[in-house]
Amino acid sequence: MRIATYNVNGVNGRLPVLLRWLxxxxxxxxxxxxxxAPQEKFPEKAIADAGYNAIWHGQKSWNGVAxxxxxxxxxxxxxxxxxxxxxxxxxxxxAIINGMLVGCLYLPNGNPAPGPKLEYKLRWFERFxxxxxxxxxxxxxxxxxxxxxxxxxxLDVYKPERWVDDAxxxxxxxxxxxxxxxxxxxxxxxxxxxxxxxxxxWDYFRNAYGRNAGLRIDxxxxxxxxxxxxxAAGVDxxxxxxxxxxxxxxxxxxxADPEE
Length: 260
Fold this sequence. Notes:
24% of the residues lie in helices and 25% in strands. The chain is of the alpha+beta class. Strands 3-4-2-1-12-11 form a 6-stranded mixed β-sheet. A hairpin with a 7-residue loop joins strand 3 and strand 4. Helix 3 packs parallel to helix 4. It is globular, with a radius of gyration of 17 Å. The two termini are 15 Å apart.
């Protein structure tokens, strides 16, 4: 089974790219971020015509997350991160698919830093850590996939010295990510490619994609049940080079079917 995460940077504006990628690679489950569309403007019919059931949490102009499943039922579990009833950002959605719990997230960017946006990001991280710990305690197969807006190590960023004050690379942000991993989650890409330079995002400016001046900010965190089934992980880097593509590339894992 192939599971992917993809920050589409506008689901309607990038719909031809998304549909082309779905047709080309046929992932079984897809987590999408940055829909940038209100709930009623999600392209449900086009996604269904491509063979996918979907749940989504939209928001006008900003944010927005969705989970797609190819020919499988999705049972929505939640569509917001617990811990702050006043947080109205559409940044988290969770579903049960084929015996797995899949959480799709779009973590706040946090810039400019320091400031209120970084403080919101760190609070979101705290809430996410609490929820992640609760999910681990359930002792069920869980995948937490999405745009985490953090480069965990210097290997995950081109010229790290230029990013030391950025909210995606500040020590307290990297520590917040590590705190979650240390609960018992597996960073899928790094498990299988511990020393390889792998990026999932390339800015539109300064020919970043052409120079491979990228960042690894899209991640899969796997509970032990899924970690034991992990077969492969990678990035569909070529999609970033397609016309009118997102500044992110789809990132994916392959897992074995559960033992009967």
